[in-house]
Amino acid sequence: MSLDSSLPEAGAAGNRSEQLSPREREILLLAAHGMSDSEISASLSISPRTVGAHLSSIRDKLSAKNRTHLVVRALRAGVLAIRTEWSSARPSGGDPEETFRLTCPTKVRGEGPGR
């Protein structure tokens, strides 16, 4: 039995991931980069409690059990992607803080069309 076969399919999460708000997408990206709720809060000038509420909503929409599972589900649903062009473009493998990107336009960390 493989590990993947014990996990629910990402198809249902993929459909609900389209319902993520722009703010939820911002928070998801920052969480994927390893930021804590308080770091996200300071970065976006919102309360840590609001960050927690957004993360809870995102977890519900992507059917994720925890923060790590949330990133995995977002990758499988196509909401997040891993930057692969940096591994060959830069000798150091690129900036680890910019490893993930959203698959749709956003204003977070210089992301958007043409990036």
UniProtKB/TrEMBL annotation:
Annotated region Disordered: the residues are: 1-22, 87-115
CDD domains, per database record:
LuxR_C_like
Task: Give the InterPro entries listed for this entry.
Answer: Sig_transdc_resp-reg_C-effctor, Tscrpt_reg_LuxR_C, WH-like_DNA-bd_sf
Q: The organism sits in which domain of life?
A: Bacteria
- Matching SMART domains, A to Z? HTH_LUXR
Q: Does the keyword Isomerase apply?
A: no
What UniProt keywords apply to this chain's record, in alphabetical order? DNA-binding, Transcription, Transcription regulation
Q: Which residues form the HTH luxR-type domain?
A: 13-78
SUPFAM superfamilies to which the protein is assigned, alphabetical: C-terminal effector domain of the bipartite response regulators
Name of protein = HTH luxR-type domain-containing protein
